[in-house]
TrEMBL record:
UniProt keyword DNA-binding, yes or no: no
Record-linked PANTHER family: 3-METHYL-2-OXOBUTANOATE HYDROXYMETHYLTRANSFERASE
Underlying gene: panB
Organism of origin: Blastopirellula marina DSM 3645
Protein name per the record: 3-methyl-2-oxobutanoate hydroxymethyltransferase
Pfam family, one: Pantoate_transf
Residues the record lists as binding 3-methyl-2-oxobutanoate: 52-53, 91, 121
Requisite cofactors: Mg(2+)
Length: 269
């Protein structure tokens, strides 16, 4: 299916960055497949993240560590095929950027070549500055991810609010200086997030980081009320799709069992 929208509608990396300068808040949501990406793009979401959260949300793992680069690429292809306006960003999974700049370019290069996405995201600030700079010098737009970094869950022993302001600012500045075009700020006190956002020229996209960020991101399953297990405190439920899907599926089962479905209009003469 070809797009009828002019190419000028597309949110490119420079347009994404300009939204901060223009004082426009940036909306971002995750998506992992074609249907959801199409819905979000048509709803006008500015950016769609193919997050490694798909390890938990789609694949049912306990952490984001198991998802592979090949699996990220598989999902990113479905998403990018559906999206005409939003900036599509793909998470570099653990440990596809930890073996040095060379391996990071190999991983991120595959994402850009094979999926149709426009940028990658990686967890890290100060300690990933060299990798960010290497990717940028290869022409690959990089979003950083500072604060709570779910790929460090084994070291942290859980998902906790990150309160070391000095470290947070150092990470954010290192990512910006290395050439990142934006960054996610995850699970940091809102005062720290606001201070960092004011300090930086590139946009900050908050998740559990308060209203002072330049944009917001949520895991789409969480905000739609689709997540079955634990949902973090920073999530707002904009729908109850679990309830609606359960009701619909129950009704279907009843109607099949009782013979009410299919009616004549759902079959052929
Ligand atoms: N469905 C889903 N939504 C997410 O937002 C998400 C994932 N999965 N998986 C990867 C990470 C993990 N995330 C999480 C998970 C839990 C907390 C959490 O429990 N936070 C505590 C703070 C506890 C503390 O600081 O001691 C909270 O009370 O919300 C935060 C972020 C965010 N990401
Ligand atoms: C929640 C966002 C920021 C993320 O990294 C993910 O979905 O993996
Ligand atoms: Mg992620």
């Amino acid at each position: 299916m070809s797009s009828h929208k002019p190419a000028s509608d597309r949110i490119t990396v420079p347009k994404f960055v300009a939204m901060k300068r223009d004082g426009k808040k940036i909306s971002m949501l995750t998506a992992y497949d074609h249907t959801m990406a199409q819905l979000l793009d048509e709803a006008g979401v500015d950016s769609i993240l193919v997050g490694d959260s798909l390890s938990m949300v789609v694949q049912g793992h306990d952490t984001t560590l198991p998802v592979t680069l090949d699996e990220m690429i598989y999902h990113a292809k479905m998403v990018a095929r559906a999206v005409h306006r939003a900036l599509v960003i793909v998470d570099l999974p653990f440990p596809s950027f930890h073996l040095g700049v060379y391996s990071a370019i190999e991983s991120a290069g595959r994402i850009l070549k094979e999926t149709g996405a426009q940028a990658v995201k990686l967890e890290g600030g100060v300690e990933q500055a060299e990798v960010i700079a290497g990717l940028v010098s290869a022409g690959i737009p990089v979003m950083a991810h500072v604060g709570l970094r779910p790929q460090l869950v084994m070291q942290m022993g859980g998902y906790k609010v990150q309160r070391d302001e000095e470290q947070l600012l150092a990470d954010a500045l290192a990512a910006q200086n290395a050439g990142a075009f934006g960054m996610v700020l995850e699970c940091v006190p809102r005062s720290a997030a606001a201070k960092i956002s004011a300090e930086l020229t590139i946009p900050t996209i908050g998740i559990g980081a308060g209203a002072g960020c330049d944009g917001q991101v949520l895991v789409v399953n969480d905000m739609l009320g689709l997540t079955g297990g634990y949902v973090p405190k920073f999530v707002k439920a904009y729908a109850d799709l679990r309830g609606q899907i359960t009701t619909a599926a129950r009704q279907y089962c009843e109607e099949v069992r009782g013979g009410a479905f299919p009616a004549d209009e759902h079959s052929f003469k």
